[in-house]
Amino acid sequence: MNVNITTLIVKKAQAGEKKAMEQIITNYNDQIFRLVFYRINSWTDAQDLTQEAFIKAFKNIKKLKEAEKFKPWVYSIALNLVKDFYRKKKFLSFLGQANDLENIIEYDPYSENKSDLIKAKEFEEEIKNKYIKFLSKNEKQIFMLKYIDDLTIHEISQTLNKSESTVKTHLYRSIKKIKRHGGQIK
Hints:
mainly alpha, 2 domains
């Protein structure tokens, strides 16, 4: 989506225009859902967290000082919700209340993009199982934002609040480790 159009729509949303908020959801819903789903492997939970990300974004959209930074801002909200999800899951597991079936991937039977999502998920699982296990936490996060979520270096930098050179360094290291273990990254 064109950056200038996005900025205009975000500014309208900041002014309280509901149509602009609907347009933002239309433009970013699939991207945020994919980001969350690839990290938690639960269709239902990903839908809930995606919705929660937009609710949080719209409650705080007036606090966003630079409208052109909306995308990395909403991505960071979603990533924080994923972290909270795992903290809660760990806590429930500690209490013995976690359901063993939670790890089964759930698919929406009404989704038109189901086959694309399954193919993308299979690719992500292959990468995760073969290569990502060799990466540090930062390398893994940056690698996934770049190659799974398709963010630019600049967007990753803004999302994680890290310098672009730090992002590039972690990305370079992750690619080097993956290649060392037989992976091919373009």
